[in-house]
């Protein structure tokens, strides 16, 4: 009888603290199995025109994924293009989505605004 190894990706999100920045990121934490869509939302600080998404994997450097300026894509990386999707509609929070998470996607994801 064989053993099955069940993998799941854990996505942690960094919420802004009580200092002046007012970036709101939800959910506070997210755990998904392989292939289960993961979606994270971010509301930038009022008056900010730029929004950025970053990934911090275990034992790796901070990696920039994508940025928006005035709700439109400003810059994006190849890694973003291959693994993620994002949008920043004018009538709802900006979001980052991993359509089909893999074990390597388990990381800390966070947004920032300026």
Which helices and strands appear, and what pairs or packs with what?
Blueprint: E1 8-13, E2 24-26, E3 29-33, E4 38-43, E5 50-57, E6 62-69, E7 72-76, H1 78-83, E8 85-87, E9 94-98, E10 107-113
Parallel strand pairs: 1-10
Antiparallel strand pairs: 1-3, 2-4, 4-9, 5-6, 5-10, 6-7, 8-9
- Give me the CATH architecture, please: Sandwich
Q: For this structure, what is the CATH homologous superfamily?
A: Immunoglobulins
Which radius of gyration do the C-alpha atoms yield? Answer: 15 Å
**Annotation field: number of helices:** 1
* Strands, total number: 10
Q: Tell me, briefly, the overall form.
A: globular
Name the structural class.
mainly beta
Strand content: over 45%
If you had to describe this structure to a student in words, what would you say it looks like?
The chain has one helix and ten strands. The chain is mainly β. The protein starts with 7 loop residues before the first strand and ends with a strand.
Using brief descriptors, characterize the structure shown.
10 strands; 1 helix; immunity; single chain; 49% strand; T cell receptor beta variable 23-1 (non-functional); six-stranded mixed beta sheet; Immunoglobulin-like; TCR_beta_variable; Ig-like_dom_sf; 114 residues; four-stranded antiparallel beta sheet; Ig-like_fold
């Amino acid at each position: 009888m064989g053993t099955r190894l069940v993998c799941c990706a854990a996505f942690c999100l960094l919420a802004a603290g009580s200092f002046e920045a007012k970036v709101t990121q939800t959910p506070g934490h997210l755990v998904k199995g392989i292939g289960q869509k993961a979606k994270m939302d971010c509301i930038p600080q009022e008056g900010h025109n730029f929004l950025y998404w970053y990934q911090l994997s275990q034992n790796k450097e901070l990696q920039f994924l994508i940025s928006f300026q005035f709700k439109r894509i400003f810059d994006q990386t190849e890694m973003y293009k291959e693994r993620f999707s994002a949008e920043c509609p004018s009538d709802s929070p900006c979001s980052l989505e991993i359509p089909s998470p893999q074990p390597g996607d388990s990381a800390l994801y966070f947004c920032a605004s300026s």
